Amino acid sequence: MKKGSVVIHNASEVVTCSGYKGKAGAQMQDLNVLKNASVIVEDGIITKVTAEPIDLEYFLEKDFKVIDAKGKCVLPGFVDSHTHFIFGGYREEEYNWRLNGISYMDIMSRGGGIINSVKGTMATSKEDLIQVGIKRLNSMTSFGVTTVEGKSGYGLDLDTEIKQLEVMKELNKLHSLDIITTFLGPHARPAAYKQDPEAFIDFMIEEVLPVVDQRGLAEFSDIFCEENVFSIEQSRRFLNAAKKLGFKIKIHADEIVALGGAELSAELGAISADHLLQASDLGIEAMKNAGVVATLLPCTAFSLKEHYARARYMIDQGLIVALATDFNPGSCFTESIALLIALATNQMGMTIEETITALTINGAAALDRADQIGSIDIGKKADLVVHEFPSYKFLPYHIGVSTVEKVIKNGVLILD
Ligand code: NIG
Ligand code: FE
């Protein structure tokens, strides 16, 4: 068999999500679906997408893998553009406290929250983090994810931040999924800096950021900009320092309190601002004008028992909206794309077309990779998922259940 060369033919629908950049506003509705169509892949790259009959004999002779997708739909692999999937230990107690009405911020102010996962991650060896990372990546694959972003931020010191990033670099080699890394050193205030966040930001800028940069361990930098975590001014200082070194910028913005993180993301030219539950109208307008992707994380809002971000308003205002899981041990312990689709369509007023766009080409845009992944277009990586039903309209309808049947990564069948 010719590795990385595949023909998927007979598909009831090929949902191309066609495009080479993020889709804004009303464009999100257009999935560009081909009926009874085929996709041809050579050496891991998509070379043809067609609703015309194809000469199957030719491809069989040339030793292509042939997949008959009769009665199935084919979508681009999902891009989960915001996760914290490398961590040690769990916080099941905290989730149960939340079910009983204690808030995420209350748990944090009582010494729980992110700091708990920092302890767990410090206490877990690199090898163990790699092993559990493989399991989590396998689970993501089963939901049709082919590219995932992963953040550090459960170290808050030099060694553990580096350890987390190195684990992800290693996993990128070991596992078929592509992992894009983000340095999130300022994720919480460690005990030693509790009363002096400025000094912690100095430490991150002077001691940690340069090492991450020199060792090429992360493409993005991110900060948890939130009341009682890091202020707008501290976030601006850290992100500007990261930008100077050439990092691309993300920001955890306006999740619990409307601090103005959305406005800051526009000012700094961030690639994305994420969460945005409390983002102001002016912040949304500024993001639109600056082309910042709004990455919404409905599973987190659900898990925190918060209201959802204003997806409908943002799309109607013409933003590029992406959706991601935010998989992490605290605010959102789920990698379930099936749950995410259920929440986006049933609770946030997004159509399934907008939801799929948000998980594919716009997820790719949130990682600055819309020219390489996120749609079934000629020249892009062959990251393709065969779903078990004839139409993408089954994805929200089969509530909370993965419809994924086969996953093809770089033209190689990795889940069958
Ligand atoms: O995106 N909000 C900050 N960071 C994560 C939560 C991390 C944690 O609770 O461990 C988030 O929700
Ligand atoms: Fe997050």
UniProtKB/TrEMBL annotation:
<comment type="pathway">
    <text>Amino-acid degradation; L-histidine degradation into L-glutamate; N-formimidoyl-L-glutamate from L-histidine: step 3/3.</text>
</comment>
<feature type="binding site">
    <location>
        <position position="330"/>
    </location>
    <ligand>
        <name>N-formimidoyl-L-glutamate</name>
    </ligand>
</feature>
<feature type="binding site">
    <location>
        <position position="328"/>
    </location>
    <ligand>
        <name>N-formimidoyl-L-glutamate</name>
    </ligand>
</feature>
<dbReference type="GO" id="GO:0050480">
    <property type="term" value="F:imidazolonepropionase activity"/>
</dbReference>
<dbReference type="InterPro" id="IPR032466">
    <property type="entry name" value="Metal_Hydrolase"/>
</dbReference>
<feature type="binding site">
    <location>
        <position position="91"/>
    </location>
    <ligand>
        <name>4-imidazolone-5-propanoate</name>
    </ligand>
</feature>
<feature type="binding site">
    <location>
        <position position="255"/>
    </location>
    <ligand>
        <name>4-imidazolone-5-propanoate</name>
    </ligand>
</feature>
<dbReference type="InterPro" id="IPR006680">
    <property type="entry name" value="Amidohydro-rel"/>
</dbReference>
<protein>
    <recommendedName>
        <fullName>Imidazolonepropionase</fullName>
        <ecNumber>3.5.2.7</ecNumber>
    </recommendedName>
</protein>
<dbReference type="InterPro" id="IPR011059">
    <property type="entry name" value="Metal-dep_hydrolase_composite"/>
</dbReference>
<feature type="binding site">
    <location>
        <position position="326"/>
    </location>
    <ligand>
        <name>Zn(2+)</name>
    </ligand>
</feature>
<comment type="similarity">
    <text>Belongs to the metallo-dependent hydrolases superfamily. HutI family.</text>
</comment>
<keyword id="KW-0862">Zinc</keyword>
<feature type="binding site">
    <location>
        <position position="252"/>
    </location>
    <ligand>
        <name>Zn(2+)</name>
    </ligand>
</feature>
<feature type="binding site">
    <location>
        <position position="187"/>
    </location>
    <ligand>
        <name>4-imidazolone-5-propanoate</name>
    </ligand>
</feature>
<keyword id="KW-0369">Histidine metabolism</keyword>
<dbReference type="Pfam" id="PF01979">
    <property type="entry name" value="Amidohydro_1"/>
</dbReference>
<dbReference type="InterPro" id="IPR005920">
    <property type="entry name" value="HutI"/>
</dbReference>
<keyword id="KW-0408">Iron</keyword>
<keyword id="KW-0963">Cytoplasm</keyword>
<feature type="domain" description="Amidohydrolase-related">
    <location>
        <begin position="74"/>
        <end position="412"/>
    </location>
</feature>
<keyword id="KW-0378">Hydrolase</keyword>
<feature type="binding site">
    <location>
        <position position="84"/>
    </location>
    <ligand>
        <name>Zn(2+)</name>
    </ligand>
</feature>
<comment type="function">
    <text>Catalyzes the hydrolytic cleavage of the carbon-nitrogen bond in imidazolone-5-propanoate to yield N-formimidoyl-L-glutamate. It is the third step in the universal histidine degradation pathway.</text>
</comment>
<feature type="binding site">
    <location>
        <position position="82"/>
    </location>
    <ligand>
        <name>Fe(3+)</name>
    </ligand>
</feature>
<feature type="binding site">
    <location>
        <position position="326"/>
    </location>
    <ligand>
        <name>Fe(3+)</name>
    </ligand>
</feature>
<feature type="binding site">
    <location>
        <position position="252"/>
    </location>
    <ligand>
        <name>Fe(3+)</name>
    </ligand>
</feature>
<feature type="binding site">
    <location>
        <position position="154"/>
    </location>
    <ligand>
        <name>N-formimidoyl-L-glutamate</name>
    </ligand>
</feature>
<feature type="binding site">
    <location>
        <position position="84"/>
    </location>
    <ligand>
        <name>Fe(3+)</name>
    </ligand>
</feature>
<feature type="binding site">
    <location>
        <position position="331"/>
    </location>
    <ligand>
        <name>4-imidazolone-5-propanoate</name>
    </ligand>
</feature>
<keyword id="KW-0479">Metal-binding</keyword>
<feature type="binding site">
    <location>
        <position position="82"/>
    </location>
    <ligand>
        <name>Zn(2+)</name>
    </ligand>
</feature>
<feature type="binding site">
    <location>
        <position position="154"/>
    </location>
    <ligand>
        <name>4-imidazolone-5-propanoate</name>
    </ligand>
</feature>
